[in-house]
Structures are given as C-alpha cells and as structure tokens.
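Appendix B. Extra example for self-study. Work through it before the problem class; the solution is given directly after the inputs so you can check yourself.
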Amino acid sequence: MQEIRFHGRGGQGAVTSAELIAIAAINKGKFAQAFPSFGPERRGAPVVAFCRVDDRKILIRAKVYRPDVVIVLDSGLLELLDPTEGMHDGGVLILNTKKKASDVVNVAGRNIRVATVDANTIAHEELGRVIVNTTMLGAFVKATGLLGIDDIKGPLLDRFGAKLGARNLKALERAFQEVTIV
Amino acid sequence: MAKVRKGIEVSIAMSEAVAQANVDVIAAYPITPQTHIVEHLSEIVAEGHLDAEYVPVESEHSAMSVCCGSAAVGARTFTSTSSQGLALMSEIFTIAAAMRLPVVMALANRSLSSPLSIWNDHSDVMSVRDAGWIHVFVESGQESYDHVFTSFRIAEDPAVMLPVAINLDGFILTHMIEPIEYEDDETIRKYLPDVKMKNALHPDSPVSMGCFGMPEIYTEAQMHRQVGVVNSYGTIVKAWQEWGDLTGRYYRPVETYRTDDADYCIVTMGSYGETAMEVVDSLRGEGEKVGVIKLRLWRPFPFEDFRREALGKKTLIVVDRAISFGGPGGPVASELRSALYGVPGAPKIVNYVAGLAGRDVARVDFRNIILEGKAKAEKGDTDGFTLYGVRG
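Solution. Structure tokens for the complete assembly:
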C-alpha cells in the first residue's frame, strides 16, 4: 500500500489532488481512498488531505501517520510544520518551490528523496491563477511512477470540463517535465 | 446485469442510490456531515433526473414532519440528518415509528453538543435508540450504497412498516472517496419495485393515524410497536439474503472475522470493523487467537445471532462510540452484558469507549485496546468501562 499525505492551505485544492489520484487508481482497477483531514473549511489555514492506493481492498480507516509520499503545495508551510514527520525510509517528498531542495528542507542523513518544482510559476502561466494542486500532480507522477499522466487525464477532464481541464493538463505536463528529483 | 465500479464520495453514491430507488419525496435540512447527501439529491431532482418532490424545510423538526406526511400517503420517502439535527427532530422521529411510517434515513453519525463538535461518534443515534426504528450500521461506502435499497425493501414490507435508519460514520464514511460498485437500474427495479402501501391516507378509504390514546389503549399501542420491531427480524434477514443472491454482497445481523478458533474477540459497530480486521490479522501473525465480531443490526437487537458467535469465547472486548453518563458503560457493551446475563459459560466483557467526536483510532490504538482488554479480563477487571486515551 502507498500512503500519501498532502499539506496545503484551505482553498488550494489539496483535497482535489488526493481525490484525482484515488479516482485515477480506482479507474485502473486498483483500490484507493481519498479523504480530507475532516473539519470545517477555512480558506488559507493549513490543511491536510490523505490518499491510499493498494492492489487489495483497503481496510484501515484512520489518518495517514506513516506516509510514503508527502506533497507540499505551499512552501510557506515549511516554516510551520515538518513535512517529513512519520515518513517511511525510501519515501518521496514533493515540494512546490523555486529554491533548491536543500535550502528549504533538511533531510540530511535520512533516506528520503526530494522532488522540487516551481509550480507557482507554471500555474500562473498556464492557468492564470496560482492554484497548484493539478500542477503538483505532474511532479507526483514523475517522482513516484505510481500512475501515468494518461491515468489522471480522464478524472482531470471529468472534474474540470474540457476547456479548463485541458489547461490543467498542460500545467501538469509541464511540471512532469520540469520537476527536479534529488 | 451491468455493474459499474466507480471511485466516488460515499455521500454522492448514497444520494445516487436514493435516486435509483426512485423515491417520491425527500425532505431534509442540511447539517454537517450529512450535507453532501441532500445537496446532491437536490441537484438530481432540480436537473430532472428524478421525478420527486424535494422539500427544503426550515428545520429538521419540519423535515421529519414532512416525511411522516408523505410516508402516510404511501410515498417512498427519504431524509438524512446528523447530531443536533436529529436531536431537533427527535419529537417527530419517535412518531414516525409509532405511526408505522416506512421512512428511510441516512443518519451520518456525529457527536452531540456540548462542546460543539461536528465530528463522528455514536452519541446521536444512541439518544433515539428506543424510538422503535430499525437501526442498521454500515462500515464502508459499498455498504452505504447497498443498504439504501435493502432498507426501503425492509421498511415498506407490509409485515414491517417501520422506519429504518442507516447509520454511517460521519466524515469517516461520508467524506471518503473509495471504490463502489453500482448496480444497474433494472436490477434495482427488480429488487425494489414501486409499492402500493396498504392503509395509506386517501380520501376514498379514510383511516386515522396518530390519534390521542387513552390509558386504555396506550399500552396496547406500545406492544404493537414492540412486536412490529421484533418481528421485522425475519424480513430483514430475507431482504439481505435476496440482495446477496442478486449482487453477490451478503449481509448478516452479526458478522464475524477469524472467530472460529478465537479465544477472544473485539466487538465493533460501524466503520471501525474494517480497521479491527486489519489489526486482528497482524495480531494473528503474532500468535494471538483473536477475532472480530461486528454488529450490523442494532434494532431489533439480534440476540440469537450474537449469542451464537459469543458463546465459547473467553473474552469480548467491546468498543463503544458513546457514553451513558453515570450508567454501566457504553450502550453496546450494556446490551451485550444484558444479552449474556445468566447464560452459562458466557464470556467476560471488557468495555472501552473510544473515538469520541472524531478522535482518530489508529491501528496502534486498536492493538492497545485488544491487548490491554485481554489482560484486564484475565485479572477479572471487567466492571464499567475505560475511556481510551483520555488525558488526566
């Protein structure tokens, strides 16, 4: 089972990202869960969303405490929390930042791969708005190999419609190309 | 028969099941965490996908009042609520059962105030336990979808004519996206045809409902409700059996996991059952002879099924999701102790209350509860209950 944790701010679409991964995996015949850190919606406040993907039926109904993948949509959150908390050895941390990974997060001595992408710029250029949740999925696909871009394409177009969906897909594809993995 | 497997939010799947069940009337007031169910139903009706009346009432008290009226004229009727909403509708909630009105409700379980909390536990449903509704607990999205159909089938059966509450854990299930297999409309129509209810209100054949009852008749009316709830058991089992024959998904009043050779069992009700199964698998790997007993049917209480599974075990560790303040423990443990009282060879019962108002109960917590509970039973420490994880 792969367990994924998203860190974002209310309104940035962390929950949507988790949902798109789960739906894409389920459409491939896998089992998956996506769920928010339950509570009242608060725009701008730090939020967490979770996703699980497995080849067999998933029974656990608790939060994700030992993630294999952590995705941070807003690098400002790195001042408030440790995104690597509970991460498995061999896990992947995916950050939205212009900076080099080593400048924003300290994973020295830990077996964690770090992927960075400047999703703000990509989203601004492709979508005209700095909403990075779908852009970050491109980095997720490249960094984890858990799903292909084609797997996410269907759920993405279903969610956003043909026109907006195509723009989100372009942002996703750019992030796939531009992500740097250390 | 075409099945379609979808990755979908459980609330949305449930509202689509209600549409597939071809309901006539939905009356509801939005309240977290049930909101997505009725919101999506209002869209389905507004977009013309379902020929039904959606009555957007001003309170839950009115929601259940409308439901009583519509069920009384023989319309297939659905509503949904949670927590304070259920508390506000409780006056009419009881009347629905007393008047034998086959309303089906999705009860997205949530804690009661105060402190104000929107998160999940079973304190809301336990406050209306004794009203005379049939109460079913589900533990997954698939079960939430399936039980919409089985519940209408049970509620509207002429031998039953009682309201049914489908209890699903708020957020843990309502806000979860997971795979759910949809049945096609033809299968649903076959299983759940439109019904013409006997004794429905109609000007051509007048009947009285909800009358004033003098002491000379009140006792008999209560006996009537008691017999009705008890006797619904046979219809419930049959409805679940037939659903299983049609879809391959079978449900039973009490379900078990790895209990055959178990010395002791954890007992759950609702969505905790699946996590418990996973933890039992890992404890089995360490040589613990432990299993899971899951209560699906809460009212009528399935005494025989429960005793059949419980007898022969040394200990039951019962996880409740609500407290009876000043009482003997959680409502489920109280029921099980009472069901086993005086039965020779009955297992010891250790009671934990956990997961109040959405406090996460992770694998490690289940493990602690199971192993601590076993040790308590061995020491004979079986009185009352332990509030798991409470800080000094």
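Self-check: Chain A has five helices and seven strands. If your reasoning did not lead you there, revisit section 3.
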